[in-house]
Structures are given as C-alpha cells and as structure tokens.
Design brief:
Elements lengths: L1 H29 L31 H11 L1 E4 L5 E9 L5 E11 L5 E9 L5 E11 L5 E10 L4 E11 L5 E7 L5 E10 L2 E10 L5 E9 L5 E6 L1
Antiparallel strand pairs: 1-2, 2-3, 3-4, 4-5, 5-6, 6-7, 7-8, 8-9, 9-10, 10-11, 11-12
C-alpha cells in the first residue's frame, strides 16, 4: 500500500514538472528579440590635395643642424699630421647655409701651434669678422703668452688682448694676467694647488688703467665644486 502511494506521488510530480517546462518554453518563444542591422561603411574615399614640390628640408633642432655641420667639415694636414686648415658651415632651421667658417693653423719647428686664425663669412663669401691668436711657449713647452686680435668685416681691428701665464713644475698654470693694448692689466687670476689638486683661485678685476675694482676668492672641495666665495 505504501509503495503504491509513493509511486502515484512520483508520477504526479513528473506531470507537473513537464507542464511547467512547456509553459516556460512557450513564454520564451513569445519574447521579442533585438536584431542588429549590419552596418555598412560610409564613403572612405580620401581627399586629394596638391603636393608641394618646393618644400625645404627641416633642421629645426640643434642635433640635425649639428649633423649637417659635421658633414660639411673639410680638413687639411701638413706632412707631420698637424691640422693646418678646416672649413665648415653653420645651417639655419631650413637647412640653408647661415655662415661659412674657416680656421688656419701654423706651427713651429717643434710642432707647437703658434698661430691660429678664424674667419667667418656670409653664404655669398662676404667677411663678417675674424680673429687671430699668436702663442709663445717656454723651454718646457708650457704656454706663456697669447696675443688675441679681433677684426671686423672690413678688416679693422676691433679687439686686442694679451695674456701672460706662469706655470708650476707640473706644468699647471698658476697665474693668468690679461692686459689691454696700453699695457695695463684688465684681469688677473691665480690658481692655488695642494697635492696636485686645485683648492682655490684668487681673481682681481682692474679698470684698465691700473686701478683695482674688485677682488674675489673661490674655494673648492676635492670634487672641484665651489664651497665658498669670498669678496674683498
């Protein structure tokens, strides 16, 4: 009796479940569905324009201009391998020559450079300015004198200065005095060393007639950094 009752209950549950599943399927089939229409691409035809054939090369940054300048360098050497002439060009941001430059060098019998000229020209070779350095050495090949003369585009003297140097036993400069053409000091600097390292320097500024304007001392640490400045 109990087995028959259980059997009847199970059959009833199966019938109820089947009806429920059928109703859900019917409801699902009646739901509206969204259909996405296929999108067609629009007109992708590119616009045509006039191509400029007269565009100029761009050298808007220093690296590009520097690279072009390096490519323009032409060097000449003497039989001893000394550089005796160099020509090069400076360029503007459009890649055109801005200035032309020329350097010349002369050496003594010990192959020490004793004269060096610099000339600057416009792109059509008109002089802009020039200057020359005449250099002298002692028996230890230390530089002891340099005379600088500058000229304008017409060849007129525009600057003149003479530097006299003193050196220690290691060949390091201990004093550098700049004089004007009248023979008066304009600027003097003394370098002080300790165990081969620069520890301080003393500067004196003159008025060009022998009078002192200002004095200053700089002190350095072992890394060459200024750690103290003293004005007198």
């Amino acid at each position: 009796m109990n087995k028959n009752l259980i059997y009847i209950i199970l059959v009833g549950l199966l019938l109820v479940a089947g009806c429920k599943s059928k109703n859900q399927t019917s409801e699902s089939s009646n739901e509206s569905q969204v259909i996405l229409s296929e999108q067609k691409p629009g007109n992708t035809q590119q616009k045509t324009g006039k191509i400029k054939t007269d565009s100029k090369p761009g050298f808007s940054n220093k690296y590009d201009r520097g690279q072009k300048k390096r490519e323009s360098i032409v060097d000449k050497f003497d039989p001893f391998g000394n550089l005796i002439e160099r020509t090069e060009n400076d360029y503007d941001k459009n890649g055109f020559v801005k200035f032309k430059k020329r350097y010349t060098y002369r050496y003594d019998e010990k192959q020490r450079r004793i004269e060096q000229w610099f000339y600057q020209y416009t792109p059509d070779d008109r002089p802009v300015f020039s200057h020359v350095n005449y250099i002298k050495y002692d028996n230890m090949d230390n530089k002891i004198e340099n005379i600088f003369i500058g000229y304008d585009g017409q060849g007129n003297e525009s600057n003149w200065a003479k530097n006299l140097y003193k050196n220690n036993a290691d060949g390091k400069v201990t004093e550098d005095v700049t004089y004007n053409k009248q023979g008066f000091p304009v600027y003097k600097i003394n370098y002080n060393y300790e165990n081969g390292m620069l520890i301080s320097e003393n500067s004196v500024y003159y008025d060009g007639k022998g009078g002192i304007i200002n004095k200053q001392t700089l002190f350095y640490d072992e890394y060459g950094t200024v750690i103290k400045t003293l004005d007198e």
